Amino acid sequence: MVSAIGDPYTVFLPPSENKIVQEDLQGAFEGVGIQIGFKGTQLAVIAPLPGSPAELVGVREGDYIIAIVDLQKGIDRGTNGISLPEAVQAIRGPSGSTVTLTLLREGETEPIEVDIVRKSIDVPSVTHKFEGVDGRVAYVKVLKFSGETLSEWEAVVLDILKNPNVEGIIIDVRNNPGGFLQGAVDLASDFLEAGDVVVKEENADGSSEEFKVEKFGRFRNQNIVILVNGGSASASEIFAGALRDNKKIPLVGKTTFGKGTIQEPQQVDNGAGLHITIARWLTPSGIWVNDGGLVPDYELDDNPDTEEDEQLQEAIRLLNVQ
Predict the structure, then answer these.
(1) What gap in Å lies between CA 288 and CA 150, rounded to an integer?
(2) Rounded distance, CA 88 to CA 17, Å?
């Protein structure tokens, strides 16, 4: 019934699949360590998690997944018409088991087949460290917007505020697939002024709602740069779009994924679930990212053949921290 709508993000979740979604939002699971979504109707890799089995065998953000094979689970199928929960359930599995993915990659003429050994993965949603002379740059990596993000963010904020040397902050949402919309609103609010619009929500009936800053932004006067790439999707695009539209904060990296719809989870009897696309979201200036994502102000690649993170170095340069 829900597939007849023609929206890949409106899905029915049997109990086993609904359990997987809940695990994702908590950040602990057994699998290969990739975030997946759709480019049009084709299943694609939003991003591999840092240090994950998928990253270690060379899976890249933007790869299209055209087939999934797990002989132990009796799975050997293409991904045409697959739902997101079905794909997650097929790719995820017990630690030590193997799944084979067939990938299509831009610039490659032949499909790429990779065998990935699953493992237990526990991923924090926010990490940070201090870069530069005397730790003058606070580098914050937001990996997703989950149920734990706000509490982890609070700990990071307090640590930054305790460092008197900090002269600029880099927020890295590269390969951040999104999560809870409210998480993006909460984090963005720490950089904006009270009353600023973080995101606009448009419903199917034509009504709309604005999510505004309702707290004192602790970093509203800080020098900020945001790192994005093709793995930055949904809530991470909301965050980046809000800061750029309101404060002209520059984006560095590559064009974002482009997911501009909002899903509402419904719990159904016996542990099943239903995710329904209820609205689309726009940046404060009215940009709908489904039309092509957010194009960065400073577009450049991170060269995979060098140890240096060129995008990060460009962000540090833009901060002009001495």
Answers:
(1) 25
(2) 8
- 283 and 205 belong to one structural domain: yes
**282 falls within a domain:** yes
Mean pLDDT to the nearest integer, 191-211: 94
> What is the domain extent for residue 74?
28-122
What residues are paired with 212 via a beta bridge? 197
Active-site residue flag, 234 = yes
Q: Which long-range contacts (CB under 8 A, 24 or more apart) does 212-215 make?
A: 213/188, 213/189, 214/189, 215/189, 215/190
Spot the catalytic one: 234, 291, 297, 301: 234
Look up the CATH number of the domain holding residue 305.
Answer: 3.90.226.10
- pLDDT (tens digit, 9 = 90+) per residue, 234-245? 999 999 999 999
Active site residue 291: no
**Residues sharing a CB contact under 8 Å with residue 262, sequence separation 6 or more, in sequence order:** 181, 201, 277, 278, 279, 280, 281
pTM, whole model, 2 decimals?
A: 0.74
Specify the residue for token string 């699998």.
Answer: 31
Distance between CA atoms of 118 and 317, rounded to whole angstroms?
Answer: 38
Given the residues 259, 285, 297, 305, the one annotated as active site: 259
Distance between CA atoms of 189 and 49, rounded to whole angstroms? 26
Of the residues 122, 148, 183, which one is the last residue of a structural domain? Answer: 122
**Catalytically annotated residue among 245, 247, 285, 302:** 245
Specify if 13 maps to a domain: no
Active site residue 245: yes
Identify whether residues 175 and 310 lie together within a single domain: yes
Any domain includes 18: no
Overall number of domains in the chain = 2
